[in-house]
Each structure stands twice: as structure tokens, then as C-alpha cells.
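Task: complex structure prediction.
Instruction: return C-alpha cells for all chains below.
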Amino acid sequence: MNKLLREIYNNGIEFVRTFGAFQLFFMRLLRHSPGILIRRFDLVIMQVFNTGALSLVIIMVSGLFVGGVLGLQGYSNLARFNAEDSIGVFAAFGLVKELGPVITALLFAGRAGTSLASEIGLMKATDQLSAMEMMAVNPVPRVLVPRFLGGVIAMPFLAAIFSMIGLFGTHLVAVELLSVDVGAFWQQMQSTVELEDINEGILKSIVFGVAASLIAVWEGYNAIPTAEGVGRATTRTVVITAIAVLIFDFMITAVML
Amino acid sequence: MPAFQIEANISNPLNDLAENLIEIHDLKYSRGPRVIFEGLNLVIKRGEITALMGPSGTGKTTLLRLITRQLIPQHGTIHVDGVDISKLSLAQLYQLRTRFGMLFQNGALLTDLSVFENVAFPLREHTKLTNRLIRHVVLTKLHAVGLRGAADMMPAELSGGMARRVALARAMVMDPDILIYDEPFVGLDPISMGVIVRLVRRMNDALGITSIIVSHDVEEIATVADRSFLISNGKVAASGSPDELKVAQSDLVRQFMHGMADGPVAFHFDAPGYEEQLLGRDAE
Amino acid sequence: MQQTRSVEVGTGLFVLLGMGALFFLTTQTTGGDDFSADETYTVEARFENIGSLRNRAPVAMSGVTIGRVTSVKFDRVTLEAVVGFVIDAQFNQIPDDSDATILTSGILGSQYIGLQAGGSDTYLEDGSEMLFTQSAIVLENLIGKFLVNAGSGGED
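Output:
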């Protein structure tokens, strides 16, 4: 019993310690961010490409099908109340405020987050980060900050693209397939969705972008520098990002309502 | 007491200052409960090739990281060129590190940059040279290691020996005073090994660099090093030229230099008595 | 160099696409009231109950949007809701005895103010207050009334 309590206590301390270290790490990245944004924007562009542009295909394909599913589900449910004209509203709210930011963040964790974590972890395992230190180059601003910023910049764009493609997916299913009136589809959406709703989605995607990139960079940087350690870091990246994104989503939604 | 224990350099302070580039005094470093160094004293002389040898797990790489202050000792001092490196600010430390060139075990080339960009990396980060000048310097260094033709290749396309040569070119590109090699011979075929050995010697003599090599390849060290230190149990167990070490009387030195399986470094890892364990008396 | 070029092109396309998507979302999914006017005049109306009428809700006459709600306040003396809205200045011949009603567009749609023309010779102008208003229909009240009516109807 005593042993169990001690274990819980130790784990608790360890958790708090990790959490504190994580915060300090975040501060460190933030402190270096303005300098990198101004002086080494080329590095950031490279990472926007790696995390954003290379995630486009998965984001667009997923968006199209999620939108399509919303069209099917929305139609079959709304048709019961003779309200299938409202399907545009239904899909727009769902995509812009929830599914767009959340699914994008989850896909981002799987596509870009894992590649960030494993890349940084491998750089550590193969002494590339030490080599940089020895060349008197601080790897935090040179390697970590551009990757972090790239992810933060890419995420809102990815989420917006996801939502837009998703709406086309819904349009395709609802209007072209199930012959909902095209005018009603867009007009109802337009008269109901407000700028605040879009802003909520953008806010969420920015928060998720910070969280997902930060977790990926952190896990990579703190990976045990072995093949196994890097593998574990990528897995943890996906798991922790997914949990963090869903918790943040709940908190933001609760505050915004 | 081993025959070649290091002597404290008290003979001529003025001369020492010029001669001794790196002085390590009474170093203690432990990782967790495990003591890696205790009471380690070591002097590296300017312009020489110094080898740090020792059985695996004696912390040779750790010692390199201590000398370059990637790690900080719990006790003792490390002076580089008369400066106590534990007292440097981060900016001064980075300043000092530009005087070091380090060759990591597997080259540690940056995988997302080409060979050319890898060698150019320190120049691009630290200098404002024009592209033309950088090109000139980089190609010169690549030529020196015989890989000018591989400038446009990516690190993944290189063999182990080539990667190490590129890393050597990169380590030299800022014209350092001290070149550090961490296990430069591991996993190389005899030809590549010979190439690296020759390069180490040539760089050292032609450019007046001080070299530090961590290795346990006794044969190669013997051909290239001016002085070697054998590290064991957290201390310098012996020092001297490789030839001196070869004929040394100490059991440990002989075991290491001649590759004997058993000796002061036991073949068997600590375990309960063989018979006792087999007969299962400790099962209860 | 070829590599950096393609990276730059790819990043540029990505960011443009992202901005396009943001632009699409902000312009195409919102702002259905499509009301925009350079010159407007402000009118107030008092309602007993405004239901869920919000800021920026459209003000329509004969189904055409001619203005939008700019403020929703509560009068603590008369205990009424005071709704301020602007009307496009070109519609300056609305009789001042017109009737303002809070209506709902569609079954799930949002609420808006509908104006019903009166017969007066004087027109609404900046600062006028509408005299005749009808509150929003609140579904619960409606059902309540219906039930009461049904109950009393049964006894007759």
C-alpha cells in the first residue's frame, strides 16, 4: 500500500516536472520565433512546404469524403423534418466550426506531426543536433523553431481548405446526387452562418496548430536517440496530439458558446 | 601504480601555457548513480595528435563532450587555451566552439542538405561571405578530402567512408585549431580506413592543427597518434606514445593493447557463483 | 537551386489555396443578407419580445432586404426590448405608421424584421420610432395558447 502511494506520488511529481519542462520548452521556441521569422524566413517557408503543401492531398481527399458523408447523413436526418433545404447550414456549421479544424489537426498529427517528430528524433540519434552545436549553431532556433512555425502557419490554411473542399463534397452529394435545391442550399447557409462562426473555426485551427506542432517538435527533440526511441516518439506524437486537440476543442467550444 | 601515469605539469609554467592546449584537472563526472570519471587528469599538447583509448563504456565520447562543454562536470576544471570553459557564457562558448572542428562517429551530416551545403553550412551560418567565395572555399575543402566530385550528392547516397570524409571537410571549413575525431575508424573497410588515417595525419601536419582521436583501433592509432592515453575506471590508466604503451608492463595496458579476452577487464560480467547458480541454491 | 524553386512554388500555391479557401468561407458561406449601403438612416422600434433576433439580422420589406439590425437593447423603465436598425437611405418613403414584425425565415432559419407599409403621408426618417410592432412568435407560447384554446373549445 505504502509502495503504491509512493509510486503514485513519484508519477505525479514526474508528470508535473514534464509539464513544466514542456512549458519552458514552449517559451524557448516563442523567444526565438520573432528572430527566425525576420532573419531566416526561408527556413520557415521550407517547413510550411513540408508540413502544409505535402499534407494537401490527404487533407483534400479526406475533406471531400467527410463533406460527402455529411451530405448523406444530413439528408437522411433532415428529410424526416422536411428540412433537407437546411443541409447547407448543417454541413457548414459542422465543417467550419468542428470537423474542419479537428479532423485537419488529427490528420496533421498523422502526416506532418509524425514526420516532424521522426525527423528531429533521427537528427538527434545520428548526432546531427550535436554536430550543429559543435559548429556553434544553436539547434533550437535553427531546427526546431522553423518546424514549429511552419506547422503553426500551415494549420489554419489546411483547415480552411478542408472545410471548403468538404462543402463541395456536401454540395456534390446533396445537390447533384440527392437533388436538394442549389439555391436553398447556399442561401440558407449564407443567411445562417456568421463571420463569428468562421472566426471560431480559425481560432481553433490556430490553437490546434500550435499544440500539434509543439507536441511533435517536443517529442522529436526529447526522443531517446535510438531507432526504438524515435519510433516511440512518433507514436506518442499522434496519441498526445489527438488527446490534446480533442480537449482543447471541448474547452474552446464551451467558452465560445 | 602503472609505469606511465601522467605527471602533473609543474615543470615550467610558461612553457606549459604555450605547449598545453587543453588541461583537464581532477575531473569528476557521474551520470545518475554511475560514476564515469573520478580524479581524471589529462593534458593535450598543441600541434600533436592525441589518442584517447579505452575499453567500451569507459566514457571516451563523454570525455569529448565534456571538453567541448556539451556536458558539464560535477567537479574539476577543464582549460582550453588557458580559459576555464565552465565559466564561459553561451555566446563565448559558441565563440570557442568555432575553434573546434568535430567529426562524429557516423559523420552526422545534415540529411536534408547536399554534400556541398553540408560543408557550406558553418560558413552560411557564421559568415557573410558571397556565394562565390563560399563555393570556392567549399570546393577547396572537398578537394582536400578527394570528394569534389560528390558535391551535389545527398548524404544518403554516400558510403560510410565518404560520409566521414565529407564530415571532415565540414569540420575543417572554419579552419579550426582543434579537430576532434570520435571513433573515426569504426565500421570502415581497410581502404577507407587507410584514407582516413592519412587524412588525419595530413590535416594535422599541414595545417598545424591539434587533433584528438577517440578510438580503440590499436593498430590505426599506433600509426597516427603522437601520444595516447588509456582511460579505464574513470582515470587515465596509462599514457605515452603508442609504442611505449605496447611494451608497457601494466596488466590492463597489455590486455587492451594486445586484445586479450580476460584480464583486469574481466571476461565475465559480475554474476553470482557459476556452480551456485546452476545448482539453483539461490532459487529460494 | 531547382529544389528550392519547386519548394517555393509549392509553398506559394499552398498558401494561395489556403487564402482562397479562407476567402471562400468568409464570403460564400456567410453574409446572406447581402445588404450594403453607403448612406443609411437609423430607426428604432420597441418590442415586447424579440425572440432570438440578433445583431446584423436583416430588415426586409415585401421580402426584399432594405436594412439590418444594429443594436438590441433593453429599456429598464418600460421593460421592453429596443431594437435599432439602419435602412438604406434610398428607401426614404416608408410611411411612419408602418408595422414592424419579427419573423422567422424557414423552419430552422434565423429571425428578421419584416416591415408592413402603412398609409401615412409622413415618412420614417433618421431617429424615428416605429409605433406599431408585433413581437416574435415564441413556439412555446404558441403551443400553450393552442392547448388552452383546444381545452376551452372542447367545453363549448
